[in-house]
Amino acid sequence: MTNFEPFAMERMMSKWEYAVDYNLSESGVHPITMRELVRDPAVIESLLDTELNYAQANGFADLRERIAALYPGATPEHVLVTVGCIEANFIALQTLLQPGDEIAVMLPNYMQIWGQAHNLGLQRRAFHLRAKRGWAPDLDELEAVVSPRTRLIAVCNPNNPTGRILTPDEMDAIVAASERSGAWLLADEVYTGAERLAEAATPSFWGRCERVLAMGSLSKAYGLPGLRLGWVVGPVDTIDALWARHEYLTLSATMLANKLATIALSPEVRPRLLERGRRYIRQGYAILQDWLEGNEGLFELVPPQAAAIAFPRYHLPINSTELVTRLMREKSVFVVPGDHFGLDGYLRISFGLPEVYLRAGLERIQDLLETLQK
Ligand SMILES: Cc1ncc(COP(=O)(O)O)c(C=O)c1O
Asked: What is the pTM of this model?
């Protein structure tokens, strides 16, 4: 057995997100209320009559149909509904890989797959997004680390924490690497729909090669993290194999989550939620950008193309975990240290938040920065 590697970012978030006055650590847009989500009185009535039974274990058929409709060529049989994308990622590694197998992970990334790979006894290789190239992936490094031994390539697109969206050529290069090596391609696409600049949703890796799993979720662009509702889209037999692990782990997403997710992805509601998310992202980014510019010389940022987070580098002689710990203890504000992505000297700051809250949180950060600069 390998030594257990905890999920450093989620450990810190679990302990602090509800303990501070200003939580600027989330990566999705500000959560929506039930009232905002469900407006039709007849639907509210029918929800009150819901039997709180086990839900269909692989997800309501209607819900899987709505998810499948987002992926050209997919049918409900290509979809497994999970308890968040975090479950989808977990059971995918558990299903497809054996201890000792080699995987290649695009870094930085939400570090779940990186940590879990270690915990499953996998051999980890990395290829990096490079800050100097506007967080473009290092395709030479991809070429160097992917070989016939590679069993899975994991990418996150749009990326957490940088907000970078892969170009069509970069996507092609990743698909080619997976086809050349015979490796599975695991594409965590939870930030699709949370584009800041583009109007169109980020294209999926689904359909670009045979051995691909596309992960999605309602947690980020839709503002529904508390539903704990995610999914994986993949080849039918692989989806069935994942479902068999899902039965051991969570059995099903809840009945209410299935119902509310079906509403969220309906043709009437989905556009409204995505529009709301983009509004938060675009307005929030303008506030953050002003604030960063007001701190001239202190920060360097490659503007994020998607997600409700920015990942600036700061020029202060203090370790990122130490800086965040001081922010939490002295100013009751929480952002994510770059250390959690293996990049000290950076902070991940959320901006998809109500204006007053965001401005007040940034002001508290400002207070500490001024003290540190004295
Ligand atoms: C890239 C990525 N994947 C998965 C997750 C977990 O998402 P969910 O809430 O759907 O479990 C996160 C959450 O931050 C994430 O950033």
From this structure: 0.98
